Amino acid sequence: MQVILTFDVGTTAMKCCAFDRDLHLLDSVTTEYTLNTPAEHIVEVDPSVYWRGLCASTAALFSGKLDPSDVAAVGITTQGETTVVLDDTGSPIMPAIVWLDDRAAAEAEQLTALIGSDRLYRSTGLPSLNGAVPLAKLKWIMDRPALKKRACKVLLLEDYLIYKLTGRFVTEHSLICSTGYYDIMKRQYHDDFLRLAGAGACLLPEILPCGCIAGGVTEKASGESGLPPCTPVVCTAMDQTASAIGAGNITPGNVSETTGTCLTVAATAKVPDFDSKIPLQYYTHYDDNYLALAYNPTAAIVMKWFKDQFITDSDGFRASGLDPYTYMSRLAAQIPPGSDGLLHIPHFAGKNIPQECPDMRGCFMGLGLGATKGHFIRAIMEGVAYMLREDLDVFRAAGIPVSQIRSLGGGSRDKLWCAIKASVTGCELLTCDNEESTSLGAGILTAQAIGWGSVPALCAKAVTLKASYTPDSTEQVSYESLYQDYLRLDALAAKFYSRAPSAVSV
Hints:
Number of strands: 23
Largest sheet: 7 strands, mixed
Radius of gyration: 23 Å
Distance between the termini: 62 Å
Shape: globular
Strand content: 15-25%
C-alpha cells in the first residue's frame, strides 16, 4: 500500500497525516512544542525543536500499522514568516524568529519610508509592513554585524525542514509571498527591496513551483526520521494556501472561511486589485491565480472565552451531560434571530479589515433585563457572521466573485452557526468531510508532484462535502437590517478606540 505523509507545522503543534492513494486519511499524530517569549515582542524557538517534532511524528506513526516502506512521498506545509538563519555549515546561528515575533517594528518603519506603501503593495501584495514581516526581520539581522557575518542562508520554516530532509536549499512561491521580499507579479525575489534590507538573493533559497519534488531523503535524515532514503520530499504550499486547496477553493467564485481562534477568509482571484478602496492582502496561489485574504484576530475564541467564564461551572451545564459547545448551541437555538436586540462586536484583540484598528475591543450592545446566556451565545455567533459578511463585501468591492462559501475550523461543526452564516451572507455554505483541510491540501499537492493526478482532478476526488446550508429567506431579510445595525455599532466602536478618531465617520 502506498501512502503520502504530510507535515502541517503550526505555531505550537505539528500534525502528521497519512493518506492513501485516494487521499483518504489513514492515521494522524500531533506533536506539540513550546515557544519562548524571553522579552516583549520576542517569540522564538530553537529550530531543532521542529526537526525533533518531525522525527517524533514519524516514529509515532511507524509504531502503529504504517510501515516506512509504504511511504511514497512526504509533503511539508508550514506557517508563513517564521525565519531560520543558518551558517556555512547549515547550522542555526540563532533561535528561529517565529511569525508572531515583531521585534523588527523599527526596521519595518524604516523600510516603509524607503519603499513607499503603494510601491510595496503593488509589488508584494502586502498592504503594509510591520515588525513580523520577514523583510523587516531580515533588515534586523543584517543590521547586526555579528549575525550578518555568520549568516549564510535565511530560510522560512518549510525551507528549513526540506533542507533537513534533503540537504537542498529550496522554497516555493506560495510560502514566500508574504515575506515582503518577493514580487508576486513577476514571481521572483525583489532585488531592490532586499538591497534596502542590506541583503541579497544569494542568502535565500531557490524558488520552485508549489507541488514540486524538492529532493530525496538523505541517509542522515533517514537515520534520524525513520523515512526511507531517497523518499521524494515535496514543497507544497504555505498553510493558508494548502487549506484553501484542501477545501476545493481553487477557482474564482469559491471562498473558504475558517472560524477558528481567528477568522480567516480566502478567495481565489485571477488578478489582484491594487486600486480597491480597501486593500486586501494577496498571495500567489498554487498556480497562476492569486489568493485574496482577509483576517481578523478573534472569532471562535470568543465562544471559548464565554464557555470558560460562564458555562463550564454552571449547574445547568453540569446537569445536561452534554459537550459544552453542544450545550451552548442548544441554548442559542432557543433565541430568535437578532438575539432580541443584543448586538455583538467580536473584535476582542483588534480589527484588521475593513479598517485597521489594533486597539479595538469587543462589546455587547442592547442588553436588557431579559438577556440570558442563550442571548449572549447567539449574539456571538451572529457577530462573527456579520464580520464574515463584511469581509465578503470587501471581496466583492475588489471585483472578486463570491458565489459559495466553504466553511472550515471549529465553527463549522456547529449546525446553527453555519445556518446563521448562510442567512447573514446570503450565500450557500458548505462544510467538508475532512476537517484537516491544510493537511489534505498538502496531500493533494504531494500527490500531484509524484504523478497521481492534477490538482483539480485530485480536489474533485478528495474534497467531499458533509453538509449544505442555504439562506433562509425570512431570516435573510431580518439579518440584512441587523447587519446594517452591526456596521453602525462597529463604526462607533472603531471611532471610540481609534487613535485618530476623525478617521472614522458615523
